[in-house]
Fold:
Amino acid sequence: MDRTAHDGIELIRRPEQNPAELRAALAVVAADRLPEMLDGQTKAMAEAIDTASVQPLRSFVAHWSAVEEIERHPATARAYHRANYLANHAATLAECREHAATVAKFYRAAYAAVND
Structure:
């Protein structure tokens, strides 16, 4: 995690990597994203059935574990959401790319923290 944004404060402990724990944690740190998570879980389950593979479910859990890692650290979440907002409201393509790169940096760091 980028140390300029990660202040060491955690709203909750890092949840276990399973849908029930992730859903419970998301209800605490970003309840407004629960419908998005549930929709993603439904799609991952359907894809797993269609492909006879657990990989879609693993990808779902890995993604939402990264989301939780961002959201459970208030300073990181603020910086992440600010960069995302600025990327979506940039006046120029260059500004959009700059802010999108920041969003990606936060996501990659969170993903690595929970999935390596």
Notes: The radius of gyration is 15 Å. The first helix runs from residue 19 to 29.
